[in-house]
Amino acid sequence: MTRPANDTFLRALLKEPTTHTPVWLMRQAGRYLPEYRETRARAGSFMQLCTNPGLACEVTLQPLSRFDLDAAILFSDILTIPDAMGLGLYFTDGEGPRFERPLREEWAIRDLSAPDPWDHLRYVMDAVAEIRRALNNSLPLIGFSGSPYTLACYMVEGASSTDYRRIKGMLYDRPDLLHHILSVTADAVTAYLNAQIESGAQAVMIFDSWGGSLSPAAYREFSLAYMQRIVDKLIKNRDGERVPSIVFTKGGGLWLEAIAEIGCDAVGLDWTIDIGEARRRVGDRVSLQGNIDPAVLFASPETIACEARKVLDAYGPGATGHVFNLGHGISQFTPPDHVKALVDAVHEHSRMLRLKGA
Ligand SMILES: Cc1c2[nH]c(c1CCC(=O)O)Cc1[nH]c(c(CCC(=O)O)c1C)Cc1[nH]c(c(CCC(=O)O)c1C)Cc1[nH]c(c(C)c1CCC(=O)O)C2
């Protein structure tokens, strides 16, 4: 496949040299942008926005026309899979996602099956294809999914949770039931990501937002093992090339070496670990994505630039292997011009470091 005109993001994931450090931001399309709020109001609801490929494409492109970002990410949500499994996803203002039929009963768990992405999730594949056409090979497009464990948290709890008591109760009392949910969900995620690759996604990311709430042993058994199964089964693109994958476990800093072993190309880092230390620990096995504290964006543009330089300096010398990002999704209260200060500082400082040969 011809690489996009700006291929720095793909190059960094594959550890090829780059002229600057590529940057994109988790949740770069979202409520902090007034034009997003306008499109969302026109769509009616968040799910109507996600299920309309034309509107999903429109909001995917919005941050790209404001900022000099190095990648686009599909506008969708991780909860499309449990919705397609029949759990009845809905969003309430201020309370986040909820399911009408959370997975609690053994019979419902035994009934669970992986949805065919070309049938129940075709709107996502249509959005991927439409975004690729609109990008016209200017930038790479990232596809994504939630990790099986993170999806299971929402499926079993029925909403966001602070203590995960239902899923953790199941994990310790009925590990067989949780393994069944995770196994079906891992098959669903594999088919979903592969369908996104067939539709044109040029990299894929697995968001394991809640894996970090597990004990080390439970993390390996209930989260990491299933992400490994998915990464193992990712297909190549139509031209027979490897599609790089990124695995992001929020709160996974203690387990970096284990994550780097599963066969992914890059590991996402939250802001609780020094990126230089992370790099020393994983060596050449994987690239790293991250990891500035998203709250830095509430500081002044000068401070933001200074903090961005600290992350680039902490990563250290070498012209590749780092994709700059936030340590978690951007806050809806972020001033858009602060994002510009961040993106421009990353480009400027990393170009300077390359010229100095650092
Ligand atoms: C846990 C999780 C979810 N969704 C996602 C995760 C994993 C990442 C993380 O840990 O944050 C992933 C996600 N959600 C969204 C994207 C779009 C792509 C991007 O720009 O990065 C991505 C990659 C859009 C969204 N997904 C959601 C919004 C806000 C919806 C709105 O317009 O009201 C957006 C832009 C809704 C959503 N979806 C989810 C929650 C908890 C919420 C409510 C969050 C909130 O209210 O801030 C589940």
TrEMBL record:
InterPro entries: UROD/MetE-like_sf (IPR038071), Uroporphyrinogen_deCO2ase_HemE (IPR006361), Uroporphyrinogen_deCOase (IPR000257). NCBIfam families: hemE. SUPFAM superfamilies: UROD/MetE-like. Its EC number is 4.1.1.37. The keyword Oxidoreductase does not apply. The record marks D77 as: Transition state stabilizer. It is found in: Cytoplasm. It comes from Accumulibacter regalis. One of its GO terms (cellular component) is cytosol. One of its GO terms (molecular function) is uroporphyrinogen decarboxylase activity. HAMAP family: URO_D. Residues 22-31, 142-158 form the Uroporphyrinogen decarboxylase (URO-D) domain. One of its GO terms (biological process) is protoporphyrinogen IX biosynthetic process from glutamate. Substrate binds at R27, Q28, A29, G30, R31, D77, Y154, S209, H328. Belongs to the uroporphyrinogen decarboxylase family. Catalyzes the decarboxylation of four acetate groups of uroporphyrinogen-III to yield coproporphyrinogen-III. This is Uroporphyrinogen decarboxylase. Homodimer.
